[in-house]
Task: inverse folding
């Protein structure tokens, strides 16, 4: 259990945007991708993904469309919009800045 | 931002679909997760369990997802609305009381707004730059009397309108004219307009063109016509090939050049004009020298101020122009004796709003309509007070519930939201009911106030609907706030601990204030009702100086050139035709009709007369008739004689004066045998041979109009008077004879000439209309307000009795008699009524000075009216409280003390 982290407030949105930057995905796949890529370190209750997806959709950063999935089942696919892409860049930059700064402080003091 | 709004709207209107999608999406996720575990080798059941654990609580996720849609406020509103509807359904009596009160209040206001809006606020359709458009009036003092002139001569129009502060002017005239030829000819309202009229409006013809300045010029304009849209539709079926065809208006052919767009009426406030004709064309066909003198004042003037110039500048310019025009008129008239040189003074011109009800010559109808609007607002306030009171009573009975919810942690904001939602739901339902009532009541009101405006249903009129919506919202806030604040001020713990027994009954100051408010307003309205009913009675029972009901009026419209002998012959034929009609008692030729607005005038003169005294601020009306004149109208001869067969054109001239005129000319002397002269100095003196009773035929408020009567043949010989028509007295109802008389007399008319017939009542009735409205409206709305107030009192007292059953039980156990209890409960109601009477009475006394001018022979502070209203209110309060009081006496002390 020690190697698993609770997600800092507000970072879930960033992770979702990043996960979608490679192409349209449905909810379960997004969850799987974050899980795999973080090597299972990030502890996200899978359900909490969905309120976040709806919030991002309302803000116009992602859009949703129903489509057919791998074995011909209906699935709701999410993809980044143009403003979503810009938002991802901005948030990534902010995140880098923040982590660098925190890193610096932690090592210097 | 835009996508956000779109998303939220979809979330609101597609709520169910979105919920279903969410469910599908979440289930699919869990299914995939399960499959993943199955692939890893777990049993199906174990895989499903794991998937669910990993996913988290599905219902909570759904709630969170819904929150993320940003529609929580709306959702909770819907929830509150549903809750409110359930609550209302469970209390049908309460709901009905509230809805009826609101429906009547809102409905009456909406219907009345539709009227007042049209009378006062709404500009003519298509009018552009409304704030710069005015109607022009002139004012002068004539004969020591201030006069206001709304109608002008064409020459005056030309002289007044070339001033720097105005950049556009138009002349406008409305009259009824025969349109068509032969037997198909019918009278239609037509508008004579200057070509500039159309420039006031942001308007293009529906077909063809409007006429040009070239077609509207002195002395005579082109015979062209623009059809009104409605006329085009009804008479031509909207055919597009009417342009270039001919239509007869009057006896002349006109060429149709265009069709006005739908709804266009120019500046007309009456009937929609069927035809628009150049005003110079209309005028020339009536009087060939119309543009050369001021003899004929007939048109109304409209003007647009140059942008940037003020109203004061326009008034100053117009006044200068008017005085110049006036001086020119005096010079042109030379030494004519009839010229009132020295008597015209302080002449000035002014601009006013185009709606005549807002102008200086607004009629009593418009003033009464404004008052009635005030009255219905009061009714709405009473209704609101009543509803607030009912809601307060309900809030009080729900105190435990409210306290419980507050204790359980419901936020006060949420609670307020719920209470306001509830009153919004009530107001919306009441508003819907009001709309239905307004649609029905609006027709009745419109028939009373705007009989000629045609019917426009309330539901399709945007302005009225907006008014309805705003009123409904206002009512919701007004009625919802009181109970909401009462609920919040409540002491949570106290209410819960007290249970039903103690502390639940206490007098609410808010409810007492609301009751007094209702009572006082009811008193004000009922006093108004009393005053107007008495005014109406006064005006109805007043003797006008002649009989109205059995008299038929036949007006002749002569459209042929007749010489004097032919006129006399025509008069004799018409009189004979009337007299030989079965059922006719008597008939007379007449020079004018009471309240027809066409009586002749002229100052009397006799040697040694104090002309200044005789003339100051007074009018003297001339009437002429054949020997049966007085018998036909039923006017009594008080002294001397009336007109006889012996009064011929060549016998010594005689005159009959009425009592008021005799008293004015020869106070304290015997008028019989006196001599007087009227009009030009060369006219002969006439000997007074009789005194008739006073009569009202010009201004109904004036009890001492001066009238004098001249035998018909002498009227023809001395004044070259033209016959106006025939008055016929019938056995029975005048209305039953109108048609037969019209046909009998029509047969005698030469050429294109024709007659119009109607009951004399139709001329007199409109003069009484203002008081009739006032009386009907105040009685209806006063009764409504009283009913609402009585319901309010009943609900408060009934509630108090129910809450005090414990206390009453104790009192009766201690020996209070039935009478004591009755007296206590009814006394409470009556004391409310008395307080309401005092407050309302003071308001009514204070408002008296504004109501006074609207009343007829009736003091605004009539003690009898106030006394009756007080009595009515006390009776109503006893009636409202006797039921609950009786229930109070039936309280069984043992039951009351044991309960709870």
Result:
């Amino acid at each position: 259990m020690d190697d698993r982290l609770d997600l800092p407030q507000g970072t879930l949105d960033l992770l979702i945007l990043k996960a979608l930057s490679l192409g349209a995905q449905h909810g379960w796949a997004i969850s799987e991708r974050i899980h795999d890529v973080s090597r299972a370190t990030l502890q996200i209750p899978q359900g909490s993904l969905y309120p976040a997806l709806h919030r991002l959709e309302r803000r116009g950063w992602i859009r949703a469309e129903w489509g057919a999935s791998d074995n011909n089942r209906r699935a709701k696919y999410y993809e980044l919009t143009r403003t979503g892409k810009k938002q991802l860049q901005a948030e990534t930059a902010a995140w880098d800045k923040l982590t660098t700064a925190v890193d610096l402080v932690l090592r210097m003091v | 931002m835009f996508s956000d709004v779109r998303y939220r709207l979809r979330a609101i209107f597609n709520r169910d679909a979105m919920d279903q999608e969410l469910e599908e999406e979440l289930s699919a996720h869990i299914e995939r997760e399960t499959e993943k575990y199955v692939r890893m080798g777990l049993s199906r059941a174990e895989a499903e369990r794991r998937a669910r654990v990993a996913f988290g609580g599905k219902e909570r996720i759904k709630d969170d997802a819904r929150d993320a849609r940003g529609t929580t406020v709306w959702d909770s509103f819907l929830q509150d609305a549903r809750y409110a509807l359930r609550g209302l359904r469970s209390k049908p009596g309460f709901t009905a009381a509230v809805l009826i009160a609101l429906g009547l209040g809102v409905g009456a206001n909406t219907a009345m707004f539709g009227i007042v809006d049209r009378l006062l606020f709404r500009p003519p359709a298509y009018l552009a730059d409304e704030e710069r458009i005015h109607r022009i009036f002139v004012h002068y003092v004539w004969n020591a009397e201030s006069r206001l002139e709304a109608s002008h001569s064409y020459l005056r129009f030309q002289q007044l309108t070339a001033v720097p502060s105005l950049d556009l002017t138009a002349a406008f005239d409305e009259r009824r004219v025969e349109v068509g030829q032969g037997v198909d000819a019918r009278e239609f309202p037509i508008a004579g307009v200057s070509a500039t009229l159309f420039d006031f409006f942001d308007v293009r013809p529906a077909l063809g063109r409007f006429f040009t300045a070239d077609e509207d010029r002195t002395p005579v304009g082109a015979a062209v016509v623009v059809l009104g849209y409605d006329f085009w539709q009804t008479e031509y079926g909207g055919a597009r090939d009417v342009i270039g065809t001919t239509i007869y208006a009057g006896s002349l052919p006109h060429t149709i050049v265009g069709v006005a767009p739908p709804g266009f009426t120019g500046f007309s406030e009456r009937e929609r004009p069927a035809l628009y004709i150049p005003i110079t064309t209309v005028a020339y066909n009536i009087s060939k020298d119309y543009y050369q003198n001021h003899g004929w004042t007939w048109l109304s003037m409209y003007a647009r101020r140059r942008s940037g110039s003020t109203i004061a500048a326009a008034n100053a310019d117009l006044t200068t122009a008017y005085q110049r025009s006036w001086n020119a008129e005096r010079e042109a008239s030379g030494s004519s004796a009839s010229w009132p040189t020295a008597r015209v003074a302080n002449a000035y011109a002014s601009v006013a709003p185009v709606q005549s009800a807002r102008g200086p010559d607004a009629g009593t109808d418009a003033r009464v309509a404004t008052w009635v609007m005030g009255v219905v607002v009061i009714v709405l306030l009473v209704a609101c007070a009543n509803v607030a009171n009912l809601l307060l009573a309900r809030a009080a009975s729900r105190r435990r519930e409210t306290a419980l919810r507050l204790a359980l942690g419901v936020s006060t904001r949420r609670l307020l939201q719920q209470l306001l939602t509830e009153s919004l739901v009530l107001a919306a339902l009441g508003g819907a009911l009001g709309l239905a009532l307004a649609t029905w009541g609006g027709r009745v009101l419109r028939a009373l106030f705007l009989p000629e405006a045609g019917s426009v249903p309330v539901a399709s009129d945007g302005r009225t609907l907006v008014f309805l919506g705003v009123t409904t919202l206002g009512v919701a806030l007004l009625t919802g706030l009181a109970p909401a604040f009462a609920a919040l001020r409540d002491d949570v713990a106290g209410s819960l601990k007290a249970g039903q027994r103690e502390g639940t009954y206490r007098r609410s100051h808010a409810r007492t204030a609301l009751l007094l408010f209702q009572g006082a307003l009811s008193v004000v309205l009922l006093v108004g009702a009393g005053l107007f009913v008495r005014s109406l009675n006064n005006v109805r029972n007043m003797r006008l100086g002649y009989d109205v009901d059995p008299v038929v009026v036949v007006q002749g419209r002569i459209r042929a050139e007749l010489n004097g002998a032919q006129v006399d012959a025509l008069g004799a034929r018409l009189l004979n035709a009337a007299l030989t009609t079965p059922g006719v008692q008597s008939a007379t030729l007449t020079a004018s009709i009471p309240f027809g607005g066409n009586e002749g005038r002229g100052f009397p003169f006799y040697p040694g007369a104090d002309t200044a005294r005789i003339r100051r601020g007074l009018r003297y009306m001339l009437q002429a008739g054949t020997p049966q004149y007085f018998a036909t109208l039923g006017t009594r001869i008080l002294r001397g004689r009336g007109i006889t067969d012996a009064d011929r054109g060549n016998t010594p001239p005689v005159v009959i004066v009425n009592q008021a005129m005799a008293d004015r000319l020869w106070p304290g002397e015997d008028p019989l045998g006196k001599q007087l002269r009227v009009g030009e100095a060369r006219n002969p003196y006439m000997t007074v041979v009789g005194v008739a009773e006073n009569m009202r035929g010009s201004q109904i408020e004036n009890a001492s109009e001066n009238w004098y009567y001249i035998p018909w043949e002498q009227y023809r010989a001395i004044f070259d008077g033209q016959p106006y028509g025939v008055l016929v007295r019938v056995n029975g109802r005048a209305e039953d004879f109108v048609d037969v008389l019209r046909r009998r007399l029509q047969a005698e008319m030469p050429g294109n000439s024709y007659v119009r017939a109607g009951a004399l009542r139709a001329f007199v009735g409109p003069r009484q209309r203002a008081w009739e409205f006032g009386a009907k409206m105040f009685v209806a709305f006063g009764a409504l307000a009283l009913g609402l107030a009585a319901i309010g009192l009943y609900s408060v007292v009934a509630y108090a009795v129910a809450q005090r059953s414990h206390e009453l039980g104790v009192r009766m156990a201690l020996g209070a008699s039935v009478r004591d209890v009755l007296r206590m409960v009814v006394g409470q109601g009556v004391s409310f009524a008395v307080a309401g009477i005092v407050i309302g009475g003071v308001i009514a006394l204070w408002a008296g000075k504004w109501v006074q001018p609207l009343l007829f022979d009736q003091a605004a502070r009539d003690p009898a009216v106030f006394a009756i209203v007080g009595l009515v209110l006390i009776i109503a309060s006893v009636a409202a409280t006797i039921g609950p009081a009786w229930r109070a006496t039936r309280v069984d002390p043992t039951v009351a003390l044991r309960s709870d």
Notes: The beta strands of chain A are 5-6, 25-26, 42-43, 62-68, 74-80. Chain A has a mean pLDDT of 83. The interface with chain B takes residues 26-28, 31, 45-48, 50-52, 54-55, 57-60, 66, 73-76 of chain A (CB under 8 Å). The longest helix of chain A spans residues 82-108.
